[in-house]
Amino acid sequence: MNQSNKILNNNITKLVNQPYKYGFSTTIEKDIIEKGLNENVIRLLSTKKNEPKFLLEFRLKAYKRWREMSSPEWAQLKFPEINYQDIVYYSAPKFKKKLNSLDEVDPELLKTFDKLGISLNEQKRLTNVAVDVVFDSVSIATTFKAELAEYGVIFSSISEAIHDYPELIKKYLGTVVPIGDNYFSALNSAVFTDGSFCYIPKDVTCPLDLSTYFRINDQTSGQFERTLIVAEENSKVNYLEGCTAPQYDNNQLHAAIVELIALDNATIKYSTVQNWYSGNEKGQGGVYNFVTKRGLCVGSNSKISWTQVETGSAITWKYPSCVLIGDYSQGEFYSVALTNNYQQADTGTKMIHIGKNTRSRIVSKGISAGNSKNTYRGFVNVNKKAIGSRNYSQCDSLLIGNLSNANTFPFICVQNSTTKIEHEASTSKIGEEQIFYFLQRGISIEKGIELMISGFCREVFTELPLEFASEADRLLSLKLEGSVG
Amino acid sequence: MEVNSKIPILEIKNLRACINDSEILKDLNLTINTGEIHAIMGPNGSGKSTFSKIIAGHPAYKVLNGDILFKGSSILTLDPEERSHLGIFLAFQYPIEIPGVSNEDFLRLAYNSKQKFYQKVEIDPIEFFNLISKKLELVNMSPAFLSRNVNEGFSGGEKKRNEILQMILLDSEVSILDETDSGLDIDALKIISNGINTFMDSNKAIILITHYQRLLDYIKPDYVHVMQNGKIIKTGTSELAKELELKGYEWLN
Questions:
Q1: Which domain covers residue B187, as residue numbers?
Q2: Residues B91, B208 contacting (CB under 8 angstroms)
Q3: Cβ of A455 and B60 within 8 Å?
Q4: Is-above-0.90 flag for pTM?
Q5: ipTM
Q6: Banded model confidence at residue A196, pLDDT cuts 50, 70, 90
Q7: Cα B37 from chain centroid?
Q8: What local confidence, expressed as pLDDT, does residue A405 receive?
Q9: Local structure of A9: helix, strand or coil
Q10: What are B's interface residues with A at a Cβ cutoff of 8 A?
Q11: Closest chain B residue to the Cα of A433, Cα to Cα
């Protein structure tokens, strides 16, 4: 069947190799700190951002830790050593003064975001989503701030929050992901430039979905953003994250930290649609997405739910996790990771059960096409005291073509006898006979694969907020649309 | 029969084809007119399934020589889905399971793909449900089949009925049924045969690939061909099938 496999693979390759739509770059005057990383760069960065002393100390401590650490090597990933001195750590569009209204934003930037489908224009904004927009190192705009403030909800860039709410930042920053948690968290803690901060006060259900849109524009800059979400007792929030980057031949580094804190009865639902540039068909260029995402269910009966659709990046390396401290707290992880060409993804989750009767649910769907490598890595740890806890894990892999690779590394550790654990895993392949079956019934190869993939992902897509579900569908079919020769 | 005056619906001329450099069909000739049912029998490995896949345009097979004409025009360069739109249907010997895709979505997409090809209006799920419900009765399937994934967990008989359902839905003009009778009990065989007989009319043609005379008790073929070693070595009427049932294939050599 070699010959037909070749034909089929060619067809599928054509299909999944659609050009990246967000690959354009914006020419804009920038304020940059020269390439390289040392203490002076960190001090300069902190000065530029006019930060309070505690933050500079936080950064310097992190930098010291980072220098003592080395890049981890345990993942199923292959990439050349990163030269950290060859990265720009601060790149910001130049503004003459602080912006009071979006009308003052550089029209070039507004155009960029319009092109990305994120309208910052007052009239055209999404009506039910507040957006914080991060361009390279800085947040350029946050919509609906005033409206949210009426409910006591704080939604701003983290830089502003550092100035306006230093006590909250001091109290929570680095409490979920400590400085020395891992190599990239130490690096991020030293050089993070912007990101979003959300604070939902007691008894408030956030009236709008909150969202951050990250755009890496500069060719040599890394993006090190930091997101912190605190949900007080009985509060509830939906948070969405989207990302794109221009198409460059070199690799860009994105090392973010996301920290979530849920107090008693609070719920945080965090959804990501990640579409960083993933490199060309030969595997050149693309974003290295090395992210630490973690949520603490501190309060009893609290809930944190991660949903991610990972379609981009040359390398994705992340494990959105939940630490279930409060009794009856719940953690969820729903993931779709699509890799193609030479993309690599090593992603999964950690569910750490500490409180009594805690529950976690993991649904992971990996799709690998081309020469790509897709790995699920999961860790479920149930503590001695976490009696009556439950975990359900399901890991499904779907292979397209003959050259792609799927791995599953579930690790489960249970230290008490009253816990219930379920684990299911499957691997399937879109084979040539399935495709021929579609074709024989008059259904095109695109439609057939689209149908199979959307069926495969359904359980995860239903978890996405409405605005994102259509975005995710669009993204996957974007990767799969096109002519078949 | 006044068939001479019209163009055959399917004409296979001197067809030679191979897979991975191994020649399976060797100078095969066959002419089929509308209104005819042809049965192809023959020992295992004689090339019957290959023949059906080549007509449907399976990419694994390479045509070395000869031609396949559908209503007088060659279809060799057409994609499998174009051949499907023209009205060529293959009921698979082993229908494929498609996890995650509901039978209803699959059937509707197949139907609408053809509608679209002929620039006809695609129909919505509610209209489609009404349409498919009537067809389901013809093969004695319950509507519960629609919400199950395509062929997933179907019994052998259910899979075969699902194939016939698709043939009826797409209203195909040339239907090749590859061992549709194998693995069926008598009741299922009767249901399927009934479905096929109801479906057949003077504008269509059916090719039955089978090992057993049993099927031909229910569906009466106009011609019976014996295929061996990649070509048709004998053609006769349904009497030939009965003779084969008694004597096997050896005596033909």
A1: 3-252
A2: no
A3: no
A4: no
A5: 0.94
A6: confident
A7: 11
A8: 87
A9: helix
A10: 19-20, 56-62, 79-81, 84-85, 89-90, 92, 95-96, 98-102, 105-106, 109-110, 113-114, 117, 149, 166, 170
A11: B96
